[in-house]
Specification:
- Helix content is 35%, strand content 16%.
- It is of the alpha+beta class and 245 residues long.
- Bound molecules: iron/sulfur cluster (SF4), FE3-S4 cluster and FE2/S2 (inorganic) cluster.
- The site of iron/sulfur cluster (SF4) has 14 residues, from α4.
Length: 245
């Protein structure tokens, strides 16, 4: 049975904005993105929202719903009490362009700062051989849909914009970890790059990134902590230290 829901949506631009209240129809089986689309179709044709797949796979429709970073297309209306007001705001960590659309270019800058996979020189594509266990390890990380909800949630940049220069965020530290764990990657000292170039030391393992990941990637346990361990191994190994001296 359909009903009328109370929605509160942030409307505005880089110059400022406000939360506006709407009453809007909800039907069985709908998700938050359906309701935003209905608002666009019936009450506010100029409302800006970014989306593509409506299937939790493109990573475009990230927003904060009742303060929790989530994908709008994967958040069922049936998870809310019918009487409650559902508040939808743009991701807080990135600058607003308009309404629910933010400028996520910070993430593309950080992506470019991670050096690409370096295969062994004497191997042609097709000659790579890996253990299944190594394939499985990186497969978890490659489920990432680049929704940037983890980046939005991590307090290192959410509450401290001044850290954006030094910190690549969980998504791209995970990318460094993925390459570091690749048995055929020959890039020089990725753990040291994670520490020096990507700000791994600023992560204090709060795990908020893992909690909001819609792909359930265990970012902290399987990528960030092992990367920290590899940094410690290399920097504080007494034999390696002796060689360095
Ligand atoms: Fe989104 Fe998870 Fe990828 Fe972060 S790691 S960008 S939360 S899918
Ligand atoms: Fe941030 Fe995740 Fe570390 S939330 S502090 S990157 S564990
Ligand atoms: Fe593609 Fe939501 S529209 S993930």
């Amino acid at each position: 049975m359909g009903y009328q829901a109370h929605f509160r949506v942030w409307r505005g631009s880089a110059d400022g904005g406000e939360l506006r209240d709407y009453t809007v129809e909800v039907n069985e089986g709908e998700v938050v993105l359906d309701i935003i689309h209905r608002l666009q179709a019936t009450q506010c044709p100029d409302m800006a929202v970014r989306w593509n797949c409506k299937a939790g796979k493109c990573g475009s429709c990230s927003a904060e719903i009742n303060g929790r970073p989530q994908l709008m297309c994967m958040t069922r209306m049936s998870t809310f009490d019918r009487a409650e007001t559902v508040t939808v705001t743009p991701m807080r960590t990135f600058p607003v362009i308009k309404d629910l659309v933010t400028d996520v270019s910070y993430n593309y800058v950080k992506a470019r700062e991670v050096p690409a996979f370096v295969p062994p020189e004497d191997l042609e594509p097709g000659e790579y051989r890996m253990q299944q266990v190594d394939v499985q390890r990186s497969q978890e990380f490659r489920r990432c849909i680049e929704c940037f909800l983890c980046q939005n949630t991590c307090h290192v940049i959410r509450d401290h914009a001044e850290n954006k220069q030094a910190f690549s965020g969980p998504r791209f530290l995970m990318r460094v970890a993925e390459l570091e764990m690749h048995p055929l990657d020959e890039a020089e000292n990725r753990p040291e790059a994670a520490r020096g170039d990507h700000g791994l030391g600023l992560c204090n393992i709060t795990k908020c990134c893992t909690e909001v990941c819609p792909e359930n990637i265990r970012i902290t346990d399987n990528a960030l902590i092992p990367l920290k361990e590899r940094v410690a191994d290399r920097r504080y190994d007494p034999i390696l230290r002796l060689f360095r001296r």
